[in-house]
Amino acid sequence: MAQTSSHALADTTVIDTDVHITVEEETIAEYLDEPYRSSILDSPHPVFPSSSWDQRMGGKIDDHFSTFTGPADIRQFQSDFNIDYPIINTFEPLGKFSQPDLAMSLMRAYNDLLMDRFLDDYDFLGLAAVATQKPAEAAEEIDRMGDEDQIVGIYLGTSGEYPPLGDPSNDPIYKAAEDNGLPVVFHGNGDEFMFDFPHHNKGFNNYFEVQTLGHPWQQMATMSSLIGEGVPAKFPDLDFVFLEAGIGWVPYMMHRMNKIYRMRRSEVPLLEKSPEEYVRDQFYIGSQPLGEPNGAEDMKRMIETLGADLLMFATDYPHWDFDHLEELDKYLQHYFSEEERQKILYETPVEAFNLDL
């Protein structure tokens, strides 16, 4: 049903499922134990690994959007962009760290910082960072953070993670998340996929090629791994959220996995229903970065294919390529009912993150 009347954004309750805080190396070092604190503070150059791609296009892209360091920044963002409930994450993809003990220390440090600086004295919502290098320790951290009322999910980067995230070695993480009633949030990343998995950095000549593929490629690999290893079947009360890959890859994956499932069902004995049914029952998808089809009807059909029960709004703020609410809402207001619009902007994330608002 097409929606013909206009709706003021200021009168709409909106949950943003992907808001990043900016944490400089020297800041997170304050929350680390030795020897890692000194190894960061005493280093004359950045310690955290990164790619060599020119993401800022030789300075053409203003870097100021990437600084989002305190609660006042969050409040200003809410005011400027009509966001009622931002769900905050610390962003750093911990899978890129080759030292397991460092990764686990950073995991705890980021969570301590999130609570200390953003959640303890404010009414924001947050995601607990999780590193997979030591799944048993990660499960303990999920149990620790699960006691915090404002923690509404766990956060995993999908690049640099090896083995793939559906591997049974990660089951303690998923069990802890399920036991604590926390959905697992998978987030794509723009420059860390020079690492082991998924490896697709060699041979490309420019960042156009890399940025086009990076986020959806990681998420496709992760979804395939989760379904292929039967993770949603093993943890039927656990929900999964995919952020920062847009939405166009999801219909393809549901239909592609259905086809392969019907050909190779014996290879996935844990599955009791089609891959698409698992996705529709236990998975949620963030909207950002929304694609830009030449024809608006193409986006309408894509949103219809996903449905309001799967789709949630996300900005990816304060990254320079974030999506303004109006980028999604122009389609919702023009093509969809107010009930569907409200589900996508508010009710579906309430369900996905078990929110009591």
TrEMBL record:
An example Gene Ontology molecular-function term: carboxy-lyase activity
Top-level taxonomic group: Archaea
Coiled coil: none
Gene Ontology CC, one term: cytoplasm
GO biological process: secondary metabolic process
Keywords recorded for this protein, A-Z: Lyase
Keyword Cell membrane (UniProt): no
Organism: Haloarcula mannanilytica
Name the record gives this protein: Amidohydrolase-related domain-containing protein
Amidohydrolase-related domain boundaries: 107-355
Family annotation (Pfam families): Amidohydro_2 (PF04909)
